[in-house]
Known about the structure:
Strands 2, 3, 4, 7, 9, 10, 11, 12 and 13 form a nine-stranded antiparallel beta sheet that branches. A three-stranded antiparallel beta sheet has the order 8-1-16, covered by helices on one side. It has a two-stranded antiparallel sheet with strand order 5-6. The chain is α+β, with helices and mostly antiparallel strands. α3 runs parallel beside α9, α4 crosses α5 and α4 packs across α10.
Amino acid sequence: MTKQTLPSFYSVSRAIQYSDGLLTSLAADGTACAISVREFSVRGAKSSHGDAYKLSKSDAKVTKDINSPNPQVVDGAFLAHDCDRLRLSFSMNVLSASLDRQSCNNFAYTEKVGDFLKKFADAKGFYEIAKLIVWRISSAAALWRNYSGVNKEVTVKCGDKSWTFDADDLSTATPPATEQAPDLVAMIANSLAGDVPVLMLNIVHDVTIGMGQEVFPSQELEMKKESNSKSKILYSVPFRGATTAAMHPQKIGAAIRAFDIWHPAFSKTGPLSIEPLGYSHRHQESFRIPSNGTDLYTHLQNIDDLITQLKTGEVSSQSLYLAGCFIRGGVFSGSPDDEAKAAEKKKKADDKAAASGKKGAARALAAADDEIDVG
């Protein structure tokens, strides 16, 4: 089937929204207490392979510099010394993955996307996505570096309903063989399909990491780092009149949407977060690229083929990935250069049509004159 031309302007609002992830210590009586972020100085050592190469040159000045201490000012967060249990809590709102959440300057392409989403819902595709989302939640993947504890328990609440999972029995590497909490899966699927306006979930992770052990919140990105500035700044938010360590909503979202188990390098990397180019921060590499035909934009071009598949009731991995990208959201427009080229191409086509129209009018007038002469 013919590949679709991608619109020059196309954006999708995410269908799942997250709050900050609050990190608190859990007292013996169940009370959640703030975990403060504090600044301290450390005396590090230079140890990169670049330093090792310089050291091998036996230059006295270089050797002295490399063997000098590497002092740093950093942020840190730790449990209290009388507490060994950490809590991560956040809320998650699930909205519909519909055309109402998309902006596009090509009505014909918008209709294609709408047809895809309808056929995907009819084929129970959102149910398959919801099963993967529940897997990511129940396996406590959102803990990230805090995952290495024991007695991991995840609780999900929605109104008067509640689900509890023993995350120690689940893997973050592969989905479980048996479906987790079918009623929760159905609720998420129905919300993604637009059958309910919004689903509001409150999610709590509890894990034992040890008395006074280090906690790992999100780290702030310094766009313009000055010399001698703090080398690590941790994220914190207000909590009950104090501040507590926290995780960015984006970091939580990246963990829960890490259900791309269909990308080409899965056997080597495991699941990746759903991304247009399959980029992995851990590996510093994109695994879904145009050359292997697995990236988002190739799927958008081949959307007619996916619609044809869905009409048969088949929900392929390609359709699941594309729907995952719609749920993730993002700006999928062409570059400004592409838009300029498209505008120039349209202008040339319009000019050609106008010129053709003038020639046609001239020929018609000449023919009319001939008829008059003949008459």
